[in-house]
Amino acid sequence: MASEIKLQGVDDLLVALRAKLQKGAARVEKNALKAAGEVMVEEMRKRVRVSNRTSRHIRDDIKVSGVRTKDGIKYVAVGPGKKTGWRSHFLEFGTKKMAAHPFVYPSFHEKRDEALQILADEMRKGLGG
């Protein structure tokens, strides 16, 4: 004797559940990317040279951007903002009258593994693992 149970609305429920999970995963991904970016920000702020002038310093303008997407890949940009970003390349690469005092690449090189570990930990924690 075969019994058949027909459930109505299951497809709608599955669509709603998938949408909710995707929204939650997007939030987790955003938080993880920002947390990993903050590690870079701290290191850059430690390494950047600061003048004795009273103008806005690059160190005070280093921040993590909002989450961006390029070719389907999400990322955050870390570095000086628009107000001081134009000056940062002078420090990073030098000029003909000033030696280079790089802070972006050394910070990335030093903290890359830690940032990746934080990214993995935050994703795992956010997804309940």
Can you tell me about this structure?
By secondary structure, the protein is mainly α. Helices cover 57% and strands 9% of the residues. It is built from three helices and four strands, in the order H-E-E-E-E-H-H. The chain has helices spanning 10-47, 82-93, 104-126, and strands at residues 62-64, 68-70, 73-75, 78-80. Strands 1-4 form a two-stranded antiparallel sheet. Helix 1 runs antiparallel to helix 3 (104-126). Mean pLDDT is 84; it is low at 3-7.
Please write out the topology.
Elements: H1 10-47, E1 62-64, E2 68-70, E3 73-75, E4 78-80, H2 82-93, H3 104-126
Antiparallel strand pairs: 1-4, 2-3
Keywords:
129 residues; mainly alpha; two-stranded antiparallel ribbon; 3 helices; 4 strands; 57% helix; elongated; disordered N terminus
Task: Please give a quick description of this structure.
The protein has 3 helices and 4 strands, in the order αββββαα. It has 129 residues and is mostly helical.
Distance between the termini: 43 Å
Q: Quick one: overall form?
A: elongated
Low-pLDDT stretches: 3-7
The total of beta strands comes to 4
Question: Helix amount, in percent?
Answer: 55-70%
Q: Strand percentage, roughly?
A: 5-15%
> Could you report the average pLDDT, rounded to the nearest whole number?
84
What's the arrangement of strands in the largest beta sheet?
A: 1-4
Number of helices: 3
Q: Mind summarizing the main beta sheet?
A: 2 strands, antiparallel
Structural class: mainly alpha
Summarize the helix and strand pattern as letters.
Answer: HEEEEHH
Rounded Rg = 22 Å
